[in-house]
Structures are given as structure tokens and as C-alpha cells.
Amino acid sequence: MVMEQGVTVPRPSAWRAWVHAARPPTLPAAVVPVLVGTAAGVRDASFHLLPFLGAFIAALLIQIGTNFANDLSDFHKGADTESRVGPARITASGIATPSQVRKATIVTFGLALLIGLYLVAVGGWPILVIGLASILAGLAYTGGPWPLGYHGLGDIFVFVFFGVIAVAGSAYLQTGDLSTLALAASIPVGLLVTNILVINNLRDLATDRAAGKNTLAVRLGPNPTRVQYALFSVVAYVVPALLIVAHLAPLWALLPWLTLPLAARLTSTVLGGMTGRSLNRVLQLTGQLHLLFGILFALGLLL
User: Fold this and answer.
1) HEC string of 164-208?
2) How far apart are CA 15 and CA 13, in angstroms?
3) Which residues pair with 8 in a beta bridge?
């Protein structure tokens, strides 16, 4: 038996435990930038399937490896306790030993590096820099002597690596060049994926503060964090319209606006003052919003 959100639940089977540790709800955050970046690149070049598949799989592996590393690092730093309001972590709950999680992290990042060798052959040294920086940043997010997530830099990390770098890098694999469209398209993707972290940190604000995990939400406080979420949402929906005005994208780039009702509902809920465990549903829907927005945005760029 293990504790999850203050409730005793049966211990999951081994494979379910590792699937849980990979945190499937977070994986679209790695996939969407590849979809949007590839679509932005294909507007300027023909579609190259193998680089797309390589980037897609490598992004998933880096995200999973980062999740494993965070699970282990938060355990060592005492950030995951029985008072945690999010899903249970496999290291802190005793489902897996620290050694097992460490090995899983190494294997996952190792597989990403192997795929990265092919991507480097396609895209050259810029892809090598992006891949190594992504892995190092994943390890440094909650690990190392100065973890980014514990010093209020998590939001910047997510925006840069899951927005700008991931989108621009995926486009570069298609074109061999860095386009204005790819950089601009990375902004809404980065903002909406950062909102996933914003809600996560708003939910965990009290337990993070008690553990000395000074996320941006802890530093700003709850109300400014809610405003941050709303501001990021607004800007994300403005960018596609600006791309059309600037003649960088077709009118179809407004397809993501079909998700505006969901975005408005979530923003209203967040600004309404919801806290703690009740934000778990908002977190889930924010992830879904990012996925839907990204799919529609990529489709709009291709049409």
C-alpha cells in the first residue's frame, strides 16, 4: 500500500508504477513543440519524415528522463511528503528505490542521445547543442547544486526549452535554417506549456514553500501567479493573429481560436481563487488545452 494525496491506495504493479513515473499527462508538452515546429518548417521546405520521427521520439524520451530525474531529486530534497496534493511520486512512496530511478533516468537519457546522433547527422552542430542543453537542463531542473526549479527559474526553463528551442529546433531539422515564423510560432506554444507549470506550482505553493522550494509561484504569491496564467493565455491567442497580419502565416493559423471557450473557462476558474487539490482538474485541462491548441496551430500552418 502507498499514500497518494493523503489516501492509502493499493501498490501498483511494476510496469504501472513506471508508466506512472513517466507522467503520461506531461508528455504532450514534449510532442506539441515538435508538431508546431515541423509544420512551420514544412511551410518553407518539403517534409522529411525521419527527422520528424527522430525529434518526436527524442523529445518524449527527454521529457520522461526529466520526469524520472525530478522524481529522484525532489525525494532527496524532501519536497515530496505525505502532505503533497499532487499525484504520488514513486521514489518518495517507496514504489521504486532511488537506485532504480537513477538507472531509469540514465537509460532514458541514453536512448535520447542515441537518437540524437542521427539528428546531429541531419542538422549538424546546432542540433547537438540543443540536445545536450535539453538533457542538462532536464537534470538541472530539480537536481544539482543549484536546481532551477527551486530558485524560481522553472517558468523560464519551460518557456525556453519547451517553446523556443523545441519549436525552432524541429523546424531547423526540416529546413536547415532558422525562420522568423518558427521563432514566432514558438511563443504561444511556450506560453501555454508554461501555464501547465504555473498551475502545478500554484497548486503546490504551500508544500513547496514549506520544503524550501522557491518556485516563481512561491516568490510571487498566489494572486500574481493567477494573473501570470491569464496573461500568458491572452498573449498565446493574440500571436496567431499577429502572424497573419505580418503575412507570415495563412488565415488558417486562427484554427487554435476554436479552443478559446476552454481557455476562457480555465482562466476564469484560475482567477476565481481555486487552490490546492481542486486545481488538479485545472492542471489536467490546461495540458489538454496546450495539446489541442498545438494540433490546431500545426494544422493551420500546413493549410
Assistant:
1) HHHHHHHHHHHHCCCCHHHHHHHHHHHHHHHHHHHHHHHHCHHHH
2) 6
3) 3
Tell me the whole-structure pTM to 2 decimals.
Answer: 0.88
Backbone angles phi, psi at 144, to 5 degrees: 80, 180
The span from the CA of 162 to the CA of 232, in Å, is 15
Give 5's pLDDT tier (boundaries 50, 70, 90).
very low
Statement: residue 161 has pLDDT above 90: yes
Closest CA to 62 of 18, 7, 22: 22
Which segment of 26-30, 80-84, 100-104 scores lowest on mean pLDDT? 80-84
Alpha helix stretches (DSSP H) within the chain: 14-22, 28-42, 49-77, 98-123, 125-140, 154-159, 166-175, 180-203, 205-210, 216-220, 222-245, 260-271, 279-302
Query: Which cell numbers hold the place of 280?
Result: 488538479
Q: From CA 267, how far away is CA 272, in angstroms rounded?
A: 8
Please give the pLDDT value at position 88.
Answer: 63
All residues at 6 or more sequence positions from 141 whose CB lies less than 8 Å from its CB, including other chains? 66, 69, 70, 73, 147, 148, 149, 154, 157
pLDDT of 6 over the 80 cut: no
If you write DSSP's letter for every residue of 87-120 in order, what string do you get?
Answer: PPPTTTTTSS-HHHHHHHHHHHHHHHHHHHHHHH
What average pLDDT does the segment 66-90 reach? 68
Contact 66, 138 (CB under 8 A): yes
Radius of gyration of the chain (CA): 19
List the grid coordinates of 87.
499525484
Tell me the C-alpha distance between 29 and 186, whole Å.
Answer: 13
Yes or no: say if 218 and 205 are a contact pair by the CB < 8 Å rule.
Answer: yes
Q: Map residue 161 onto helix, strand or coil.
A: helix
Rounded to 5 degrees, φ, ψ at 201 are -75, -30
Residue type present at position 138: G
